[in-house]
């Protein structure tokens, strides 16, 4: 199952209190312009708690905006509900890249009438978060890395993961190869076989995932060695998202 320590990134009681100070449901009007954080959604309770904690960390950094969290699937309030009930100035995706949800779902929901910012990466903030989570999981200097992401039919998403792998490789000074847990592109098993020339256990796996859930559980089952937890509530991501909300 590897060396994942995702439990360290669960929402704490303090983070839960932060969420109550920044309500996500309609009906709370502070007289501030509203920025909507749009999250993918998951049936996993820990995954929802992690994303909500990240949203709370962003809201705490943006005093001049009413920052609310909406879900594209599997949870409420939905993005569609909040767009209908609030006067939303801007949509900031809590998504790692510009995949289907940005290009299709959010574009359709906003119909071009509201600014939709790009996904989180690639970029230096995402690279920092990936490197930190790898180090926490036990990555050692010189160890090759497999960057494992969800799949997408969009070539742009796969290209973004490739760019993130290159940036992480430059940061760590090692070979970083992208792989995908579903869809097109090299699979995790094939990537481990390519990098682990003697044993896949020699390869550290970086999770290109924001929160716990189905895909991280799947990744842990395929990673025999070091496996990083999801990115979770990382300060570099919170600062980046807060800057986009201002």
From TrEMBL:
The keyword Protein biosynthesis does not apply. One of its GO terms (molecular function) is metal ion binding. Gene3D superfamilies: 3.40.50.1400. Keywords: Lyase, Metal-binding. Residues 1-26 are annotated as: Disordered. SUPFAM superfamilies: Chelatase. It holds the Pfam family CbiX. InterPro entries: CbiX-like, Sirohydro_Cobaltochel/CbiX. It comes from the Bacteria. Residues 1-10 have a biased composition (Basic and acidic residues). This is Sirohydrochlorin chelatase. It comes from Enemella dayhoffiae. The lineage of its organism: Bacteria, Bacillati, Actinomycetota, Actinomycetes, Propionibacteriales.
């Amino acid at each position: 199952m590897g060396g994942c320590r995702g439990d360290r990134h669960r929402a704490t009681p303090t983070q839960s209190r932060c969420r109550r100070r920044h309500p996500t449901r309609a009906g709370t009007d502070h007289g501030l312009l509203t920025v909507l954080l749009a999250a993918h959604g998951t049936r996993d309770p820990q995954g929802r708690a992690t994303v909500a904690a990240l949203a709370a960390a962003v809201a705490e950094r943006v005093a001049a905006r009413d920052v609310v969290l909406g879900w594209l699937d599997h949870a409420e309030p939905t993005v569609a509900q909040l767009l209908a009930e609030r006067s939303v100035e801007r949509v900031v995706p809590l998504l790692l890249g510009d995949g289907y949800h940005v290009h299709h779902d959010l574009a359709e929901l906003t119909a071009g009438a509201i600014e939709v910012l790009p996904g989180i990466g690639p970029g230096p903030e995402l690279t920092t978060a990936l490197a930190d989570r790898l180090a926490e999981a036990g990555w050692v200097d010189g160890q090759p890395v497999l960057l494992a992401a969800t799949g997408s039919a969009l070539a742009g998403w796969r290209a973004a993961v490739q760019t993130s792998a290159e940036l992480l490789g430059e940061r760590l000074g090692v070979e970083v190869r992208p792989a995908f847990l579903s869809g097109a592109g090299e699979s995790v098993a094939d990537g481990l076989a390519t990098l682990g020339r003697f044993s896949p256990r020699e390869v550290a796996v970086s999770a290109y995932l924001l929160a716990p859930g189905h895909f991280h559980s799947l990744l842990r089952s395929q990673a025999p060695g070091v496996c990083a937890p999801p990115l979770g509530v990382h300060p570099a991501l919170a600062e980046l998202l807060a800057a986009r909300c201002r």
